Amino acid sequence: MCDRIYLDHSATTPLRPEALEAMLPYFADIAGNSSSLHADGQRAKQALDAARESVAEALGATPREILFTGGGTEGDNLAILGVTEALKQRGHHIITSAIEHPAVLRTCEWLETRGLEVTYLPVDADGIVDLATLRASLRPDTVLVSIMLANNEVGAVQPMAKIADLAHQHGVLVHTDAVQAMGKMPVNVDHLGVDLLTLTAHKFCGPKGCGALFVRKGTPLEPITYGGHQERSLRPGTQNIPGIVGLATALRLAINELPAQSTRLAALRDRLQATILTSIPHVKVNCAAPPRLPNILNVSFAEVDGEALLMALDMRGISVSTGSACAAGANEPSHVLEALGLAPEWLQGAIRISLGRTTTNEDIDDVLAALQQDVPRLRALATGA
């Protein structure tokens, strides 16, 4: 294999050429600050306004409900910290799940050091939150439920509309981290019923370092940084116009291509999954039951170290992961897989293969051939056989 095979699209995606082309003029030719009143500034502002309208249309929102951020982590922090600060006189309890991204979990843990109480809901073996457990966890002092729409490690999709309806019955706001879901499944804020929603461009072939936060009209939110008036003073600082233009372009294209791409990726994933199960013994697919994203396959190989398998594939020019890129290097088992109740041997041997718009049938053939060689070899080394 001459060229590398990239199968880690859940960590980040290649910037698509159309997004790059749309961004380029705003690095040099249209260099004004969108807050400036002169003609150069107003050209930048026009691009900012157009991008905001485009993102709002993609989500079924209004332009005023879209705030541009520096990415998914910042959006999650602003949503959780901003709501809890705005509602601190009402209550000091929030609810999340045990399988959230570190951007949510670490934020909740920090809030606990400041006196807030956090309930971490368990999930079942398919990675789904139990609605009865959520109902039992809601309290008079609960101010926010933050549950991710689709999990970044296993692809499990939560019943967000039902979660939001249940929370709203108790007067509780709802935030969802939709970072992995955008471009992989339909995402409409009214259909989901959420009050806040986080997305980031680099998960759907846009630029890194640029994201957006949907904040439903009337939702109480305090800023977590202070400065200028940008983004309704909720996210002050000069806007990243090239990144925002790239985000809007990539999102529009991803939404347009969604029906065909989701079908194609699901077919590739299913062929990969079926062949692994029939050609390699002692394998477990994690969260195989629907609903799940079409592009993620998380699979455990008994008697194999996941990091060793990752490195073996890397030597062959194939990029996969053992879990969330934001938790890489933690030297501890995936908190997501632990929450699913996996036994230690399955935890140790898990890898995530995530497909994207550049993935081909030939890529699937090559990774299958590599796995069929490397898994038995690594097992033999581990067992001394």
Overview of the structural elements:
The protein has 385 residues and is an alpha/beta fold. It has two domains: 5-12 and 258-383, Aspartate Aminotransferase, domain 1; 17-253, Aspartate Aminotransferase, domain 2 (3-Layer(aba) Sandwich), CATH 3.40.640.10. It is built from twelve helices and twelve strands. It has a seven-stranded mixed beta sheet with strand order 2-8-7-6-5-3-4, sandwiched between helices. It has a three-stranded antiparallel beta sheet with strand order 9-10-12. α2 runs parallel beside α8 and α8 (241-279) packs across α12 (361-383). The longest helix has 39 residues, at 241-279.
Which range best describes the helical content: under 10%, 10-25%, 25-40%, 40-55%, 55-70% or over 70%? 40-55%
**Low-pLDDT sequence parts:** none
The number of distinct helices, counting runs of at least 4 residues, comes to 12
What's the CATH H-level superfamily name of the largest domain? Answer: Type I PLP-dependent aspartate aminotransferase-like (Major domain)
CATH class of the largest domain, anyone? Alpha Beta
Strand content: 5-15%
Tally of individual domains: 2
As a whole number of angstroms, the C-alpha radius of gyration is 21 Å
And the CATH topology of the largest domain?
Answer: Aspartate Aminotransferase, domain 2
Mean pLDDT: 95
How does the overall form come out from the CA principal axes?
Answer: globular
Main sheet, how many strands, which sense, barrel? Answer: 7 strands, mixed
Widest β-sheet, arrangement of strands: 2-8-7-6-5-3-4
Q: CATH architecture of the largest domain, please? A: 3-Layer(aba) Sandwich
Helix/strand class: alpha/beta
- What is the CA-CA span between the terminal residues? 29 Å
How many strands?
12
Order of helices and strands: EHHEHEHEHEHEHEEHEEHEHHEH
